[in-house]
Design brief:
By secondary structure, the chain is of the alpha/beta class. It folds into two domains: 173 residues, Flavin prenyltransferase-like (Rossmann fold, 3-Layer(aba) Sandwich); 208 residues, Rossmann fold, CATH 3.40.50.10300. It contains 15 helices and 21 strands. It has an eight-stranded mixed beta sheet with strand order 12-11-8-13-16-17-19-20, sandwiched between helices. A five-stranded parallel beta sheet has the order 2-1-3-4-5, sandwiched between helices. Helix 1 packs across helix 9, helix 5 packs across helix 8 and helix 10 crosses helix 14. The protein is elongated. It starts with 15 loop residues before the first strand and ends with a helix. It binds cytidine-5'-triphosphate. The site of cytidine-5'-triphosphate has 14 residues, from helix 12 and strand 16.
Length: 413
């Protein structure tokens, strides 16, 4: 698999995906899905059922995938008329999105009455479906039977989501969004270095209240912590994310605990940390909080107002000093002297790893430039988006903990 320098494998790069599109309104979302997959470097061969072709034309998919689109089992573009076998030969995954109730029924029965159903039967690769249908069709015992049958046959069933439907009703049956399908595909292809391990992550800022309407806080967006939680989860870990106030969606498969103040974050972390192999303290915890919280809104009056602040507990230092501490990762956001301060933090707090960066290069941005500091010295990672940087960190930790099977990684096995 190709890798960029940060050690983050682009999990969809070079992957061969056969995408079946069946006849549901959500077929229009499959166009967006193809665009995202191609952007991520995947090769996408689209197979349209006759129903799917009613909703979106082959031309749309051909333009987006840059490859021929297949509809007919007797397509003469395959010299040996073996499209049903050729297409999934060498494919990494057969994905059906949207997957109608009828398609689910035919896959569950093992029918082979159109090109897609035949491919599903003749494949050697894994298969995933993203159901999309009216809520009553989804809840019907026949569809539920088919879902169970498919799961028992090893098919991954992704969704459906709940919400407003094209028919005007509300309930389960919407196809999960293309973005979530891509996240699931990335998780599917990611190496499972951390399976069987639990990881606790903190992220975001804390709010330290002054009065009922005012807080002291900082500019942390939470993006780095969320990206790290997601990368650990995709790498197979059971991840708990203790999050300060941010406006970010919870990464797929991550258990999120929302807190507001540093003291709440400390309590949430100390309660959960036993049993966790790794603690990644990415939160920008406020070092100080107001000594007094006014029960009423503070009214303006004097020309000057002095706030008295008291120190907050250092959550990371406390966790690292536990009798049986997890493997601790700290973050050092500095505005100068990065090497000196980051290394000092690692030693003084007794951490296994410190991820250092210069604040002016990270705060609120999607990209980050970090340096890793551990007992072996400093390892700079290349500037990359926070998702790639997160994978660079995850890979480094997996190496340090001896979780990467280098022979498998090289492709020898
Ligand atoms: N941290 C923490 N609890 C605090 C403060 C920080 O857990 N009360 C964690 C952060 O999540 C981060 C690391 O400690 O992993 C940052 O170290 P720290 O020395 O506290 O950094 P700053 O707060 O930036 O400290 P300084 O102002 O001394 O640079």
């Amino acid at each position: 698999m190709e890798r960029n320098e940060s050690g983050a494998p682009p999990f969809l790069f070079g992957r061969r995906i056969v995408l079946g599109v069946t006849g549901g309104v959500a077929a229009y979302k499959a166009a967006e899905l193809v665009r995202r997959l191609v952007k991520a470097g995947a090769q996408v061969d689209v197979v349209l059922t006759p129903g799917g072709a009613h909703f979106v034309t082959p031309t749309t998919f051909q333009a987006l995938s840059g490859r021929p689109v297949w509809c007919d089992p007797w397509d003469e573009r395959r010299a040996n008329a073996m499209a049903h076998i050729d297409l999934t030969r060498g494919a990494d995954l057969l994905l059906v999105a949207p997957c109608t109730a009828d398609a689910m029924a035919r896959f569950a029965q093992g029918q082979a009455d159109d090109l897609l159903a035949t491919l599903a039967l003749a494949r050697a690769c894994p298969m995933a479906v993203a159901p999309a249908m009216n809520r009553q069709m989804w809840l019907h015992p026949a569809t539920q039977r088919n879902r169970e049958r498919l799961v028992a046959d090893g098919v991954l069933v992704w969704g459906p989501a709940e919400g407003e439907q094209a028919c005007g009703e509300t309930g389960p049956g919407r196809m999960i969004e293309p973005e979530e399908i891509v996240a699931r595909l990335e998780a599917f292809f990611a190496p499972k270095w951390f399976s069987g391990h639990a990881v606790l992550v903190t992220a975001g800022p804390t709010y330290e209240p002054l009065d009922p309407v005012r807080v002291l806080t900082n500019l942390s967006s939470g993006k780095m912590g969320y990206a790290l939680a997601q990368a650990f989860a995709q790498a197979g870990a059971a991840v708990t994310l203790v999050s300060g106030p941010v406006s970010l969606p919870t990464p797929l498969g991550v258990t999120r605990v929302d807190v507001t103040t540093a003291e709440q974050m400390r309590a949430a972390v100390l309660e959960r940390v036993p049993g966790h192999r790794i603690f990644a303290s990415v939160a920008a915890v406020a070092d100080y909080r107001p000594a007094r919280v006014s029960p009423q809104k503070i009214k303006k009056g004097a020309e000057r107002l002095t706030l008295e602040l008291v120190r907050n507990p250092d959550i990371l230092a406390e966790v690292a000093a536990l009798p049986e501490p997890p493997w601790c990762i700290g973050f050092a956001a500095e505005s100068e002297n990065l090497d000196e301060y980051a290394e000092r933090k690692r030693r003084e707090k007794g951490l296994q790893l410190v991820v250092g960066n210069l604040v002016q290069e990270a705060m609120g941005r999607d990209e980050n430039t970090v340096v890793l500091y551990d007992e072996n010295g400093r390892i700079p990672l290349p500037t990359a988006d926070k998702v790639q940087v997160a994978w660079g960190i995850v890979r480094h930790v997996a190496q340090r903990l001896g979780l990467i099977d280098t022979a498998v990684e090289r492709g020898d096995l």
